[in-house]
Amino acid sequence: MNTKYKFAPEQDGKTQEQIVYVRPVEVSDLPQEIQAQVQVEGIEKLYAVHNSNGERLALVRDRSLAFVLARQNDLTPVTVH
After folding, report:
1. pLDDT tens string 17-76
2. From CA 51, how far away is CA 73, in angstroms rounded?
3. How large is the C-alpha radius of gyration of the chain?
4. Largest Cα–Cα separation, the chain
5. 28-37 — which CB contacts under 8 Å span 24+ positions?
6. How far is CA 48 from CA 1, 3, 19, 40, in A?
7. pLDDT tens sequence across 4-21
8. Where are the beta strands (DSSP E) in the chain?
9. How far apart are CA 65 and CA 7, in angstroms?
10. Please, are residues 53 and 75 in contact by the beta-carbon 8 Å criterion?
11. pTM metric for this prediction
């Protein structure tokens, strides 16, 4: 597979990848206001997409969707344990 990824503007003469981090998150560990917004009964785990500064960009239902979302936005997803 020859996947092409977009890169961030050059910094100090080097091109930087726009990497995002995907990690599982237990619904019970989320703030109450976010838990109240989880609309599907029985979901215990979501997947969070974070930027390199740790800011949460998205919460999605499954890991594959997190990767698709990142790639559709020209980002390079990697898994965090």
Report:
1. 699 999 999 998 988 888 888 766 778 899 999 999 999 999 999 999 999 999 999 999
2. 12
3. 15
4. 50
5. 30/59, 34/59
6. 26, 23, 14, 17
7. 545 455 555 554 569 999
8. 7-11, 14-17, 19-26, 45-50, 56-60, 76-79
9. 21
10. no
11. 0.74
DSSP annotation of 53: T
Please identify which residue in the block is written with the tokens 């949460």. Answer: 56
* Residue 9: CB atoms within 10 Å: 7
Question: Are 36 and 2 within 8 A, CB to CB?
Answer: no
Q: Is residue 17 within 8 Å of residue 8, measured between CB atoms?
A: yes
Domain parsing of the chain, residue ranges: 15-79
Q: Tell me which amino acid residue 56 is.
A: R
